[in-house]
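A common beginner's mistake is to predict each chain separately and then try to dock the pieces by hand. The better habit, illustrated here, is to supply every component at once so that their relative placement is modeled jointly.
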Amino acid sequence: DTGVSQDPRHKITKRGQNVTFRCDPISEHNRLYWYRQTLGQGPEFLTYFQNEAQLEKSRLLSDRFSAERPKGSFSTLEIQRTEQGDSAMYLCADGTDFKETQYFGPGTRLLVL
Amino acid sequence: AQKVTQAQTEISVVEKEDVTLDCVYETRDTTYYLFWYKQPPSGELVFLIRRNSFDEQNEISGRYSWNFQKSTSSFNFTITASQVVDSAVYFCALSLKLQNYGGSQGNLIFGKGTKLSVKP
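With all components supplied together, the output reads:
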């Protein structure tokens, strides 16, 4: 049990390109959350999975964003046609039905040029 | 609407000083959880503490202590005898029970954070 991992840790892309991030939660943790954090702000909720079901989406999750969690294990977050405003840290967190605490991964820092 | 306010944007102290980070929250729910996370310069959010809305007991863990007061909707965090390694951004967060999903925990609502600098 080495904690939540995220890949890549850093991503630089040009405006208009698509990017995909991956999150690997702790294996027995059935809940998975994605957040976005811009400079000087607290993390903001994007979406939540319970097992493979996506149960909640924030209004921040525009139609250019899509998240999946096939088989209830790892999750991917894809951003299509990136914009400079997408530059942020993307954080993944996991949890369980029995613990009300979310544990965060190291994040993926995205820079859109 | 739910909201978390951390009025102190930045605090600077000298090592060994005590420092209190303020957190005020807003919610109409009676069941909720409050959290503190630490974000060092490396960027990873580190969980520090969780309290549920029915437990107003204060808690102490080493040099850290937390004061939860429902009457003032506050959940303040005190570091005693601060050290340089305490330098980080500290976030207070609120989560609510999702009534439609068997009462499971919802997403976290974060404050804007307080940047603590501890100088030697």
